[in-house]
Amino acid sequence: MSGSANEGVVVDPMIREEDPQRLAEFEAKMARGDLIEADDWMPKAYRDAMLRMAEHHANSEIVGALPEGEWITRAPSLRRKLALTAKVQDEVGHGQMLYRVSQDLGKSRDDMLRDLITGKTKYHNCFNYPVPTWADIAMIQWLIDGAAIMNQKTLADGAYGPYVRTMKRINMEEAFHFRSGEDMVLTLMSGTPLQRGMCQEAFDRWWGPALMFFGPPDKPGAEHLPPMRWRMKTVKNDELRRRFVNRFAPAAIDLGLRIHVVEKDGHGSVIAKRPDERAVRDAATGDWGYTEPDWNEFFRVIRGHGPCNAERLALRRFSYEQGHWVQQAVLGRRAGLPPAA
Amino acid sequence: MQTIPADLRDDFVRLLLSVADDKLLLGHRNSDWTGLAPILEEDIAFSALAQDEIAHAQALYGLAASVSHPDARAGADASGDAPAADALAFGRPAAAYLCAAFVEADDGFDWAVALVRRFLCDAFDAARLQRLSGSGFAPLAHLAARLLREERSHLEHASGWLVRLGRGTTESAARMQAALDRLAPAAMTLFEPFDGEDRVASAGLYPGDRATMFRTWRAAVEPVLARAGLTAAFTLDPDPPRGGRRGVHSPAFSAQLDEMCEVFRLAPEAAW
Question: Around Cβ A130, how many Cβ atoms within 10 Å?
């Protein structure tokens, strides 16, 4: 899992206060394609932005464990139960690795967990959608993990050494999740009419969030803005989305799924749908078309008004609060719980 | 012994199911904590424990299926998505499950309860697997010896936590003691015999007896409790009431089973 958390980082005024010599060395290093390590000098704005990105990613992993974790107890076979438990365990493990990367950039894990549950920091938008059936689990592992791999492969070409190495490790595990998701989707689509119907409905729910996964359309000159200029991000949102659609639209159609443009209610349930007439391959460019997802919905969910924002945060808070006595006993954590969001 | 005599088959299958059902339910309960444990590192560890238990259950169901239907190939390898193993795990009515009441109960998302239960179960399971590793039925003896290695690491993990929290803060010690007070009597349900236990024991399929196993268990449990500064009294009921091992479960168990089997029951014959 991953997300783009760096919109709106303003850099130049910060850089102006940095030592010009060190700044020049830092930028030269970047230009050579060298990796920046945790104990290297870096501009404060870079450290802040990198921390924000790694922390957002770590938050996304541990919040992302929740919707899938809900289905472990209901997995329909021992094999799927084992695979899903292992998968969610991987996500928590990714969170742990990414919190460690973030800790080295200067923020304590406890502060990060507190900021997450008080709503000061965010996590990836796609976890604010409901997961009403087993087929949604299949869809998350296929579409969302597929999107994550596509994004994270490019993040592994970034410049911050600890994050890049973590991405490489995470990507290996995500490849298993993706295969497992593909296998589940294939099994459902080869199954009974009920199973195929469940699968199509789940696809209708997740196609939009998957398109949104890469973030909103790029701002003009994105390549000059900090995330790309400092190789925190190496490929633009729209390009990632194009690659995703080219890979998944034909795969979905091959599996017998139909791509729809949907309308959802406030709970994330599909209330109307029609075939997406743009979901065809353009013979000239070779690219598959798609209807833009509802970006108003995207920003509404980011601002905390998605179908499941409150539920996810409440569970994270519950986990923090019910385990606080353990943290105090083992880690010597400070007394007192964070205030309500 | 490579085959089970026909007159012992049902008793022997009950033995396998009592072990497998304990493991499935305990693993199922542990997996509830995935994503919610108090410390990320422990979340990962608890998930690994859950996976071990579910995988142990899978292997034991596979064996039970091959013993029940010696002519069918399904489930004999106990490794894949054997439909026979899944049918045992998800396709039985509540009264056919032979797990102890102790593993079924909800832990109320209380980490102290979850840990103390794990600890008492791990010690029980290690003692039981030790007994099973001496079984005259070679496939079970081999399987039990393999599972025992993992079970010992579970016990080590739980013991470490018991001592850490028993000797942590005043609050953590009080919570652990309260959990132990609540769980100690219920832990005795682990020792409830299943129907036919004496017969498989005297046939050498499950060598040993309850009283010896109870002593082995106490010898494993009590030194750790002492190190953790926790106290408990355990008394084995020589003639326990009919409970989980004989298919008598709480109403909450049915609800739990309904949740566990919710998707499976949508299309029991289908592949998922």
Answer: 16
CA distances from B75 to A154, A260, B170 (A): 43, 41, 50
Give the residue ranges of chain A where pLDDT is below 50: 1-4, 6, 8
Give burial (CB, 10 Å; 0-12/13-18/19+) of A322: middle
Q: Say how many domains are in chain A.
A: 1
| Residues A278, A295: Cα–Cα separation, whole Å | 18
Strand partners, A264: A270
The parent domain of residue A325 ranges over 12-331
CATH of the domain at B103: 1.20.1260.10
Please report, rounded to a whole number, the percentage of residues in chain A having pLDDT higher than 90.
85
Question: Dihedral (C-alpha) A116, A119, A122, A126: value to the nearest 10 degrees?
Answer: 100
A chain contacts of residue B34, beta-carbon cutoff 8 Å: 65, 69, 72, 85, 88-89, 92
pLDDT at B78: 44
Contact A6, A51 (CB under 8 A): no
Judge whether B228 is closer than 8 Å to chain A, CB to CB: no
- Distance from A64 to chain B by nearest Cα, in Å? 9
CA distance B264 to chain A (A): 4
Residues A171-217: pLDDT tens digits? 999 999 999 999 999 999 999 999 999 999 999 999 999 999 999 99
Planar angle of CA A209, A212, A216, nearest 5 degrees: 160
In a domain, B240, yes or no: no
- Cα nearest neighbour of B87 on chain A: A77
- A82: which chain B residues are within 8 Å (Cβ-Cβ)? 51, 54-55, 58
Residue B1 counted as domain residue: no
* Nearest CA-CA partner of A298 in A268, A337, A330: A268
- Checking ipTM against 0.85, whether it exceeds it is yes
Count of domains forming chain B:
1
Q: For position A206, which CATH number holds?
A: 1.20.1260.10
Count residue pairs from A and B with Cβ separation < 8 A: 145
